[in-house]
Write a structure and sequence with these properties.
Two copies of one chain form a homodimer. Chain A has one helix and nine strands. Chain A has about 150 residues and is mainly beta. The longest helix of chain A is centred in the C-terminal third of the chain and has 4 residues.
Amino acid sequence: MDYVMRPIGVIHSPFTEKKETPIQPSRSKAIGRVELYPQFADGLQDIEGLSHLILIYVFHRASEYSLLVTPFLDDQLRGLFATRYPCRPNPIGLSIVRFISRDVNEFEVEGIDVLDGTPLLDIKPYMPEFDIRHNVSAGWYETRKKL
Amino acid sequence: MDYVMRPIGVIHSPFTEKKETPIQPSRSKAIGRVELYPQFADGLQDIEGLSHLILIYVFHRASEYSLLVTPFLDDQLRGLFATRYPCRPNPIGLSIVRFISRDVNEFEVEGIDVLDGTPLLDIKPYMPEFDIRHNVSAGWYETRKKL
């Protein structure tokens, strides 16, 4: 069964070319602007109290996927699902960003790593109790050759 | 523009009714089984080295959304996007689980919190450098009345 996703807004960023985008938001200080379509503005209530948000979006300029890929930070083929590579069967991306300020249906964030015009699917609060895990092994990423 | 998502597999869990599911995977020790459709099995290479995974899936039994909701852990109306409430414009869920073991196109995980039969859209590695943030404020969640 297929599921149809309809964007709730658009992410504006300084990046218009794929090669410009940071590899991950944790490595970016770039400022972005998240614009919700006006009919969703009420859903942003209480967002000012949150320091970090999870943006869920479409990798709208990703090409066809392969099940084995060479990650940006590695030099060997890895299973796609063990990587954050953007070309995926369902091209859904996820970025954790720092909330700065809101103006009705728009808000500014720090640490954006997506292309300008990225279609936004969802926003979730980043919550330490749910989202921080300890004793984590990152597998290939810990022994990779590139930094 | 709409985006069509087609599940890559299905999540099996002990939970068949919404009221049974844990509120978050961080509060669950339940074991689940993630079954990828066989054509995606090669994408699981290198997954054994990862201790934690992010599962992205459809809240397939969520009902219509409201932009203001009372979270399970609170007693006041909150903006939907400041909560993890399952009924959303795009009903995409996200759970961080602990990887246990893999058998070809299936793997077991600990800390599952979804309904049995949940359609799986993507799997990403949970990586401390990308996914752990410090100095986080969780807003309403920190001052809520329920635990």
